[in-house]
Design brief:
This protein has 653 residues and is α+β, with helices and mostly antiparallel strands. The protein folds into four domains: 2-67 and 616-651, no CATH class; 76-287 and 581-605, no CATH class; 317-435, no CATH class; 452-545. The chain is 45% helix and 21% strand. The protein is built from twelve helices and 31 strands. The strands form nine sheets. It has a five-stranded antiparallel β-sheet. The chain has a five-stranded antiparallel β-sheet with strand order 23-31-25-26-27, with no helix packed on it. α3 runs antiparallel to α4. The longest helix has 60 residues, at 128-187.
């Protein structure tokens, strides 16, 4: 029995030594990120039968396991992805919110200054100093829009580079996971490689921070990783590489591709990149769903400003008596119209013409050809769809015209019929902020004077105080309203039933038709006479041409733009539209901040739950250290006792 006692003591000694080593390993790695607490699993050795009884022969360490719960880890993985994506998007939006606040403040100040200068011109249309100040303020507005576009466009390029660097990082993570899969497979034949498993889980967590992933473990202990549960990233010991390539149809809107091992460069395009999740998904969402639409929203306002001022400017005459030219760039310049359409088929080009700035939404649209003359326009942000029936351009066959003026304020002309798989993008206002440009060089070119003047006859008995202008929107110019017919005379007569009727005569007293009257406005051709009061029968008004700085009709029309609501289907002024854009970004940022905080709390809760099992508790390990130390000393005493007993037996003579 002395020999058995010796073996029993040695087994206890070795087991205690293993427990101490494991405890020491836990204590040493208390601050190691991703480390899971380990435990030496101790069992009894085979018993021995002697003298009709079974005697224990000691103990041994069967395995060293890590304290790990797979479901807790998966919960942490999911919440880590949500937290990383929410916080990353919040940080991106915070930058844009600060930019928008600064730009909106500058634009609001410049607009106030511009309208102040316009009022000064209206008060004294012949003052060149007031005119030059008006131009300087207009240039300030142009500069603010241009600088905003450049700033946001630079931010888009930075995010493209960030996407590329993250794709490289993801590729290095997938390669590391595949390599650890192989190492775990090799080491698993002789036991459980706990530290390798921890390293792999750490890489999986890092990968889950970048994109949304799911994992699947096979019987050999290797893990396969799927991107969003669909595309493979790691399959056993094979890793897929993630690459960034030019986008389609917009090459500046880079996209992700997965390259399989030994694929000779052939890659799978990851569609719906905005649903990637994690920090990569936040980048795509910010770039595609925030930055691009924000540029289009600001571009909408810039285009509206240019169109409104140009329309008034071209209806008047400048200080030199010359018909006014555009104050800002022509919003439908052929080069600008071409830039608003992007397609991946080089044989199909497009031109987008802005037809009604009041109906522009600031949206961007994908266009699909569905066969025949059927097309589908889809807002890339809201998902709202607009079916379109194309019309053949009879002047330029086989061109097709897609007109959505009544709903979206623009029409698209395609040079040819596209293929059903062509990818096309329509961006009516994306370039509006950078395209805005002041066309006037000197203050005397401002058409402050209306080209027409209207005055009531001195014998009128009514209270009408008329003003003259052009219809809004102006109809096609007529042939009979030209210089040879002025001055025009408007006569108010009784139709015999007590109602008033209106007739218009040229300078030779020849009648001009047709004439219509509704809601206090008299329309003849492209002219619109607002009576602004109550006319009486036999009242007369004279419409004549004006020249030079003879009046301030156009300057007053410029001033009216400050409070005129024509954007967003007649609901917003220019200032309202700018404020709505800034407030929208601010609201989005605040909401995302709340989401980021909630995601952080959910992650911390799941992480703490995992740590309750896998984390190292120094107090517990210190207690284990004393316990196993005592076990070691006791087992050593058993060995010593067995040795002393044997020596005593050998000394008996």
């Amino acid at each position: 029995m002395a020999v058995d006692m010796y073996q029993t003591g040695v087994s206890g000694l070795l087991a205690a030594q293993a427990q101490l080593a494991t405890t020491g390993h836990n204590i040493a790695n208390v601050n190691t990120e991703g480390y899971s607490r380990q435990r030496a699993e101790q069992i009894t050795t085979m018993h021995m039968f002697s003298g009709g009884s079974f005697y224990g022969t000691g103990t041994r360490v069967n395995d060293v396991t890590r304290m790990y719960q797979e479901y807790a880890f998966r919960d942490v993985l999911v919440n880590n992805t949500e937290k990383a994506g929410a916080e990353a998007l919040y940080n991106h939006l915070s930058y844009l919110d600060k930019t928008m606040t600064s730009v909106n403040g500058g634009l609001a100040s410049s607009l106030d200054d511009l309208y102040g200068a316009i009022n000064a011109v209206a008060d004294n249309p012949g003052n060149l100093g007031n005119r030059e100040l008006m131009l300087a303020n207009a240039q300030d507005i142009v500069d603010h829009f241009n600088e905003f576009y450049s700033s946001v466009e630079q931010e888009r390029m930075i995010k493209n580079r960030d996407i590329e660097s993250r794709a490289e990082h993801i590729s290095s993570l997938t390669a590391g996971i595949a390599d650890l899969n192989q190492q775990i497979l090799n080491a698993g034949q002789n036991g459980t490689p706990n530290d390798l498993l921890d390293q792999r889980d750490r890489l999986i967590q890092d990968l889950g921070q970048q994109v949304q992933i799911t994992t699947l473990k096979d019987d050999n202990g290797m893990i396969s990783v799927m991107l969003g549960g669909r595309e493979p990233l790691v399959s056993g010991n094979q890793a897929y590489q993630m690459e960034v390539r030019p986008g389609s149809p917009d090459q500046q809107q880079t996209e992700l591709y997965l390259v399989a091992p030994n694929s000779n460069g052939q890659a799978t395009r990851i569609k719906g990149s905005g649903e990637l999740g994690g920090e990569m998904g936040a980048l795509f969402h910010y770039r595609d769903q925030v930055l691009g639409p924000n540029l289009s929203d600001m571009g909408k306002t810039a285009i509206a400003i240019a169109d409104a001022f140009n329309e008034i400017q071209t209806q008047g005459v400048d200080l030199n008596g010359i018909a006014g030219i555009n104050m800002f760039n022509d919003i439908n310049d052929p080069e600008d119209m071409a830039k608003r359409f992007v397609g991946n088929n080089p044989n199909v080009t497009g031109e987008v013409e802005i037809t009604d700035t009041g109906k522009l939404t600031g949206g961007e649209y994908s266009l699909k050809f569905q066969g025949g003359e059927d097309y589908l326009l889809t807002d890339v942000t809201t998902g709202e769809q607009y079916p379109i029936q194309a019309q053949e351009d009879l002047a330029n066959p086989p061109a097709r015209i897609l007109d959505v003026s009544d709903k979206l304020g623009f029409s698209l002309t395609l040079s040819d019929i596209p293929n059903t798989n062509d990818e096309m993008l329509v961006q009516p206002t994306r370039q509006g902020a950078i395209d805005l440009e002041l066309q006037l060089n000197t203050g005397d070119q401002i058409a402050a004077s209306g080209s027409l003047m209207v005055s009531p006859n001195g014998d009128n008995t009514g209270t009408a105080k008329p003003s003259i202008g052009y219809a809004d929107p102006p109809p096609p110019l007529t042939d009979f309203i030209n210089e040879s017919v002025y001055p025009l005379t408007v006569k108010v007569t009784d139709d015999g039933s007590g109602d008033l009727q209106y007739e218009v005569f040229d300078k030779d007293d020849a009648p001009i038709t047709p004439v219509s009257y509704a809601d206090g406005k008299l329309s003849v051709g492209e002219l619109e006479l607002s009576l602004n009061g109550d006319p009486k029968a036999f009242d007369q008004f004279e419409i004549r041409q004006a020249g030079g700085s003879g009046n301030n009709e156009n300057a007053l029309a410029f001033a009216e733009l400050q409070n005129k609501k024509w954007l967003n289907n007649g609901k917003s002024t220019v200032t309202d539209s700018l404020n709505q854009t800034a407030v929208g970004i601010g609201s989005m940022t605040r909401n995302q901040g709340v989401k980021a905080e909630a995601a952080g709390a959910a992650y911390q809760q799941s992480y703490d739950r995992m740590l309750s099992t896998s984390g190292v508790n120094l107090d517990e390990e210190a207690a284990n250290l004393l316990r196993f130390q005592q076990s070691y000393m006791a087992a050593a005493r058993v060995v010593s006792t067995a040795s002393e007993t044997m020596n005593t037996l050998l000394q008996i003579r």
